[in-house]
Amino acid sequence: MSGRRGGSAGGGTLGLIFSTLLFALSHPSPTLGLVLQDTRVDILHGGRIVVSNPAATRSRNEGEDGWRFVEELRLGRFQGRGPDVLGDVGHIAVDEQGRIYVLDIGSQEVRVFDRDGRHLRNMVRAGEGPGEINYHPYGRDIRADYMRLLWQPPNRLWVEAGQQATLTVDSLGNHLRRTRWSFPYFPEGQLATSSRVAAADTVGSIYEQLMVEDWPDHSIREFPRMTYIVRRPVTAGHELLAGDTLLIETRRIEMGLPKVESTGDGGQIAIERPVRADARQIAWAAGPGGELWLANRAAYRLHQVTIEGDTIRTVELGTPRPPAAGPVDASEYEPVIAELGVSPEGWIWVRREREDGDDEGGGPVWDLFDNCGAYRGAAFAPFPLASPHIGWRGEVHGVVSDPFGVDYVLRLRLEGVGGSTVVAETCPY
């Protein structure tokens, strides 16, 4: 696998990437094999590590594996005039001290609370001045992820208004930098149509997810849409630099014929909309040390890779079926993985795709792998959580809404019934 430097698109096709991984796994040629309880570690020629959990199976019921979530904090009230009466919560972030940053689109500000839920300050209000940003008026109901928060240690909060600007402030709300969003051109005929600030590490970079379309002519009704991860270093002056890119996915988009629609003011406009799109196949996450994790959503086979595309480690659960070698139609694709997350300790949290028969009112279910790749079991959240944030010591923050549409911010702590906790393990390799 390969990437390209300097912010330009690069890398091979996704099919080539994962075909290469599959070949390596089916021809292991290990130089060293270790068996630790139900986990096997093979170190292949070239140094790549394969961690297998062949006997482990995903539990079906809450509490089977001894993990449970305990509610530690509920931030918000149904009525009143205090700062903990939240409006439309669009996103949250949590720093290493446990301070909670709540992007309240209803009141058009970011409210900051300490670890115990005490209100500290309001900041990042609506406007064009220092430390201000324009808010989308419809909140997350109209366009999910349009506005986002991202905390980057030691003292940067990124506030993103999609395709407008990204504001950088410190924990007190002091203005650090404003980065105007632009349409960065890739090679001729390709245009970045959307981006989002998706992750930050502890070594000075943030990670941007770019969607790029190769649609040079509107007479073409079918074209590829590529997804890139861009690692962008941040200077001491809070400037985003051009970074390395990794192509992780190529999907096929089919457009319908232009349709004339009214604009509401007596005018008309011709709109082209997708009529078919290949299913999203790849989930990814960035770890605290700058590592990337990729997984085909149809198989429990997780790959730790560099931004250049080199595979360092592969983690498997059970006997995963081979992933599709290329783009597939949504009707032929059965994802089991919804999203990946990595805790500060290096544990991998694999959020399951919902299955038929799941409780509609239930929360997300995560399969847990420790930092060494050993499968540790499943954890069932008691409530649906929007914008889940995975932090230290098994803490998960997220947003829940009651039947009246009132938003609350929860902190749940993962604990083992037998005394297990989320800690960085010492790996035997």
Helix tally?
Answer: 2
CATH 4th-level superfamily? TolB, C-terminal domain
Q: Output the strand order for the largest sheet.
A: 1-2-3-23-22-21-20
The SS-based structural class is: mainly beta
Say how many strands there are.
30
Provide the low-confidence segments as ranges: 1-30, 139-144
Helix percentage range: under 10%
Sheet-strand content, in percent, reads over 45%
Distance between the termini: 24 Å
Q: What kind of sheet is the major sheet?
A: 7 strands, mixed
Radius of gyration (CA) equals 22 Å
- Inertia-based shape: globular
At the fold tier of CATH, the topology name is Neuraminidase
The mean pLDDT is: 82
Number of domains: 1
CATH architecture: 6 Propeller
CATH class: Mainly Beta
Question: What labels would you give this structure?
Answer:
seven-stranded mixed sheet; globular; Neuraminidase; 429 residues; mainly beta; 45% strand
